Amino acid sequence: MKIEIIKSHTFKKNTWSGGTTTQFFIYPHSAEYSKLNFDFRLSMATVAIKESVFTSLPGVSRKLLVLEGEITLDHENRHQKKLGRFDMDEFEGDWKTSSVGKCTDFNLMTKEETTGKLIVFDSKQNENIQYSMKNKEDWLFIYNYSGSISVEVNKKTHVIDAGDLLIIRERTNTLHIKPVKDSILVFAEITKKQPYESI
């Protein structure tokens, strides 16, 4: 088992035509988003204009979870979905996708043998959360969008403040999580058919 905490001040925020985007994690570490040579990528974006068109990303599967605001995604000749707070949509990167509305969203991109899921917790102060991973080769990411939490792993407590990202590898036991303040947490669990290299 390996544990890492990435602090919020280390993330780089970039602008795009419709707002801003912040990359939290990309794997492999040598991968470049612009080259689409990653296995998976975690990021957050703001959509600050009323209408926008998504960049085509062939070979990429996407999950988009709204944290604030409201947006309607239109996937040409496929489906349309209206997303409010904590709603999610799944779609392929090569679909022709446009949006109407403004929001802040959490994004998971995966490729090929890699799959993932997103779960959001709107947790209250001193609430007890137990979370178990099914596969020891999974990556578990916990992004603290707001608030502050303590996470107990092997009798050691880690404090995760707003904007920080906790990474856990090869975890099989139950995690014990307690919000120090009311907190919004996004859990991203990543699985691949073949084991990853060590980080």
Structure commentary:
The chain is an all-beta fold. It has no helices and 17 strands. It has strands at residues 2-6, 12-16, 19-27, 40-47, 51-53, 60-75, 79-83, 88-92, 97-111, 114-123, 129-132, 139-146, 148-153, 156-161, 165-169, 174-179, 183-192. Strands 2, 3, 4, 5, 6, 7, 8 and 9 form an eight-stranded antiparallel β-sheet that branches. The model has no long low-confidence stretch (mean pLDDT 91).
Summarize the structure.
This protein has 199 residues and is mostly beta strands. It has strands at 2-6, 12-16, 19-27, 40-47, 51-53, 60-75, 79-83, 88-92, 97-111, 114-123, 129-132, 139-146, 148-153, 156-161, 165-169, 174-179, 183-192.
Q: Any chance you could write out the topology, listing elements then pairs?
A:
Elements: E1 2-6, E2 12-16, E3 19-27, E4 40-47, E5 51-53, E6 60-75, E7 79-83, E8 88-92, E9 97-111, E10 114-123, E11 129-132, E12 139-146, E13 148-153, E14 156-161, E15 165-169, E16 174-179, E17 183-192
Antiparallel strand pairs: 1-15, 2-3, 3-4, 4-9, 5-9, 6-7, 6-8, 6-9, 10-17, 11-16, 12-15, 12-17, 13-14, 13-16
Offer a few descriptive terms:
eight-stranded antiparallel beta sheet; 63% strand; mainly beta; globular; 199 residues
**Element order: H for helix, E for strand:** EEEEEEEEEEEEEEEEE
- Strand segment count: 17
Give the CA-CA distance, first to last residue: 11 Å
Major beta-sheet overview: 8 strands, antiparallel
Question: Low-confidence parts, pLDDT < 50 over ≥5 residues?
Answer: none
SS class: mainly beta
Rg: 17 Å
